[in-house]
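Run: sequence + pyridoxal-5'-phosphate -> complex structure.
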Amino acid sequence: MVDTIRKKVEALVRPEIQALKAYHVPDATGLIKLDAMENPYSWPEPMKREWFDALQQVALNRYPDPEARRLRERLRAALGIPLGMELVLGNGSDELIQIILMAVARPGAVVLAPTPTFVMYEMIATFTGMKFVGVPLAPDFSLDMPAMRKAIERHQPAVIFLAYPNNPTGNLFAREDIVRVIERTPGLVVLDEAYHAFAGQSFMDQLGKHDNLLVMRTLSKQGLAGLRLGVLAGPRPWLEEFNKVRLPYNIGVLTQASAEFALAHLALMEEQAGLIRAERERVFESLSALKDVRAWPSRTNFILFRVEKGDADRVFEGLCQRGVLIKNLNSAGGVLGNCLRVTVGTPEENNSFLKALEASL
Ligand SMILES: *Cc1c(COP(=O)(O)O)cnc(C)c1O
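>> structure
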């Protein structure tokens, strides 16, 4: 039976899907978890009780508002979405990437992004039957503009994704380079501002000034990774089409109510982001002071660093043995050879990480 099942799987499932590895999430039980860009802070108890009260008003027996009208209005204000621009919500930005690509996936259509970058762009391009073209970043992690220009001319991408700031390198690309990409490409440019709370820069105010610019945000990096809520903003004609592809009830009642509640407490979210930004600078200084480590400045809530002795796998294992889980990027190779990525946690977590790292080097 198993054999005949395997034969049928091989005959029916698209070869490019069979060739993929499922997105791997390591087990963090018992470890200090600094691998996934999560916010380490939760809400104060009185606020949690207020949130439970809000959830009790929710009618679980009813379908959610398919347009999430109230939540969208709150997001408009909270995110500073320019007047006249539309927004579509997704089950995380991951779903928004999927929605965009499903809408444009003609046979042969290309998705382009500078690499290394967020892996979901390439994975979802593959899911939707599109071709992914990665353009290597310059050695200083800036956009390699001659290479970008050539790739745009040659591949005429339907969509270009630019993570702003970029994951896993942590830097912001130069604004003038991004504007040139937007002006040079015949396709869509999606600015993925997942780390906006830590970056201090945005293209949100540029929406409507270019006919092919969209901006994506998420609540994941601001303490709500478990909620799954992403926001895509841009001109109405684009978003009307994407809205047709979106499954009608993709944002559940609990997510809508919880996100509305969270957005009524923006000051707390900003306070937590401020703590993380301050800790990021402290951890960066500490990493930079280590002899065998090269750390890159970050505009996100994580720091990329290289183990200069060239044994990042061993250092990563040493950290795990000492109870700290970060992300090992060494197997990606190229510019990420011997690189590790640590998410900024609480001061105590960061101290544990720094101590474990020194012991592991
Ligand atoms: C973490 C991250 C996201 C977040 O995805 P969600 O599905 O909203 O959790 C999106 N883009 C980039 C570049 C990221 O690093």
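>> summary
DSSP finds 14 helices and 13 strands in the chain. The two ends are 50 Å apart (CA to CA).
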